[in-house]
Amino acid sequence: MEVQLAPLRAWDDFFPGSDRFARPDFKDISKWNNRVVSNLLYYQTNYLIVAAAVVSIVGFLSPLNMLIGGTVVVLVFMGFVWVSHNKDILRRMKKQYPTMFVVVIMVSSYFLIYYLGDVMVFMFGITLPLLLMFVHASLRLRNIKNKLENKMEGIGLKKTPMGIILDALEQQEDSINKLADYISKVKE
């Protein structure tokens, strides 16, 4: 299936007044995780634009260090995903504790970048956009359009870049993945 970029959501939908934001239920981690995953899928193009703006500013100020930092994070992420697919215990940990998995990737990247050079580029150019996305996705309440778009992504009707990343982190629902596999077999 061809990868499609999700549409840009209206900025007044992306960041409206405080009535569309609420503190997540920290006692129900699965519900909070579902909210984050849904918002990451729904607002992914908006997040991409915000991240690109931050990365551009930091990259303009320190281009070589930004390139090194981005390369290190991508390589560490790919390494952790590869290892977690080959080690069953790491695969279960990644699925149960996705935030911990991302934190381990970021801390590992931090130490590699610290060894290679400029940590501030890492903090502002890579970590800040990720933190902004996570905070927004955690606080933003979902709406009907959000839920519908996510179901379409989940059952395989659409494939987007964020969906691919979330699949690598194994954050798509199992039942939806089974349905998507069934639909793809029927199509063949």
Automatic annotation (TrEMBL):
<keyword id="KW-0812">Transmembrane</keyword>
<dbReference type="GO" id="GO:0051051">
    <property type="term" value="P:negative regulation of transport"/>
</dbReference>
<dbReference type="InterPro" id="IPR004895">
    <property type="entry name" value="Prenylated_rab_accept_PRA1"/>
</dbReference>
<comment type="similarity">
    <text>Belongs to the PRA1 family.</text>
</comment>
<dbReference type="Pfam" id="PF03208">
    <property type="entry name" value="PRA1"/>
</dbReference>
<protein>
    <recommendedName>
        <fullName>PRA1 family protein</fullName>
    </recommendedName>
</protein>
<keyword id="KW-0007">Acetylation</keyword>
<dbReference type="GO" id="GO:0005856">
    <property type="term" value="C:cytoskeleton"/>
</dbReference>
<keyword id="KW-1003">Cell membrane</keyword>
<dbReference type="GO" id="GO:0005789">
    <property type="term" value="C:endoplasmic reticulum membrane"/>
</dbReference>
<dbReference type="GO" id="GO:0005886">
    <property type="term" value="C:plasma membrane"/>
</dbReference>
<feature type="transmembrane region" description="Helical">
    <location>
        <begin position="40"/>
        <end position="61"/>
    </location>
</feature>
<keyword id="KW-1133">Transmembrane helix</keyword>
<keyword id="KW-0963">Cytoplasm</keyword>
<keyword id="KW-0256">Endoplasmic reticulum</keyword>
<keyword id="KW-0206">Cytoskeleton</keyword>
<feature type="transmembrane region" description="Helical">
    <location>
        <begin position="67"/>
        <end position="85"/>
    </location>
</feature>
<keyword id="KW-0472">Membrane</keyword>
<feature type="transmembrane region" description="Helical">
    <location>
        <begin position="97"/>
        <end position="116"/>
    </location>
</feature>
<feature type="transmembrane region" description="Helical">
    <location>
        <begin position="122"/>
        <end position="141"/>
    </location>
</feature>
